[in-house]
Amino acid sequence: MSSQAGPRAVVAGHGTFAAALMSAVARISGKAEVFVAVSNEGLDARGVEEAIGKALKQHGASVIFTDLPAGSCTLAARRIARLDSSISIVTGATVAMVLDFALGAGAAEPDLRRAAESGRAAIVVYPASGGAGGN
Amino acid sequence: MAIERFRIDDRLVHGQVVVGWGQPLSLGFIVLVDDVVADNDWERELYRMGTPPEMELFVETVESAAARMAEFELRPDAGMLLTGDIATMDRLTAAVPAIRTITIGGIHHRQGRSACLSYVFLSESEIAELTVIAARGVSIVAQDLPVSNEVPLDDLLRGRTG
């Protein structure tokens, strides 16, 4: 198991999504230092790519978590990963997903698949009981 | 139905387009007009993968988009046409006089551009290009999302700072 001090991943998304996700992770686990937040706010496609690329380089991170699979951050991340084969991307980031990643120590594919599965597993629908329950 | 919006957006296909507009307009297709993207297999595939499965994506050059415009307009579903910059929309509106309204959805900050709105920054040359488009009788408004107000070109330029 490899461990790395400082950020292992960039979280990138719309508005304050990434900062909010990091805030939640910090509150729950105290592990906010695992991530660097990047917002696409006010940036064109090239600007988003530059902002994510700069954050990766600055911290030696090799993973990018993004919000929407069709969002500008994901497209930018894919352009970066095309030029740097060491970069991995996970889309559809949620608190459960990045929390799992934060609590682990690695950034390899099994770590990412486990984090993604944690994110999926945390999605539960409790349908309305229609007034039948309650006792 | 037809192409509901002709939009200039420097992010091209992204969240605001596929979700913000895609859902309320029930978009069935997107026409991405960009000569560079159209000529690059990897970029075309990138945008295709970024488009929800319920939407069809056409990646066209200005020339091929103009040639296929009648076909797009005859489709039974609603569509949006995107260009990444004003110059491309200028060429398209010159080639397709039937385009009567265009929307600036997002032109973000770059050196040499001044702020008009939080999502529209324009350089002097881009303002000149917009003026040329408007002189053809094309109505130009800025609107990033359906919930935002439409801002006419004159108001947009009046609000310019810096």
Tell me the domain tally of chain A. 1
Biggest sheet layout of chain A:
4 strands, parallel
Shape of chain B from CA axes? globular
CATH class of chain A: Alpha Beta
Query: How large, in whole angstroms, is the Cα Rg of chain A?
Result: 16 Å
Number of domains of chain B: 1
Nearest-integer average pLDDT of chain A? 92
User: What is the straight-line distance between the termini of chain A?
Assistant: 48 Å
Helix content of chain B: 25-40%
- The secondary-structure class of chain B comes to alpha/beta
Oligomer description: heterodimer
CATH superfamily of chain B: Phosphotransferase system, sorbose subfamily IIB component
Strand order, largest beta sheet of chain A = 2-1-3-4
In total, how many beta strands of chain A? 4
Q: Estimate what percentage of residues of chain A fall within beta strands.
A: 5-15%
Unreliable parts of chain B: none
In DSSP terms, counting alpha (H) and pi (I) runs of 4 or more, how many helices of chain B? 7
Query: In total, how many beta strands of chain B?
Result: 9
Cross-sheet strand order for the largest sheet of chain B? 3-2-4-1-5-8-9
Task: Based on the model shown, name its key terms.
heterodimer, A: about 140 residues, alpha/beta, Rossmann fold, 4-stranded parallel β-sheet, about 45% helix, about 15% strand, globular, B: about 160 residues, Fructose Permease, 7-stranded mixed β-sheet, two-stranded antiparallel ribbon, 7 helices, about 25% strand
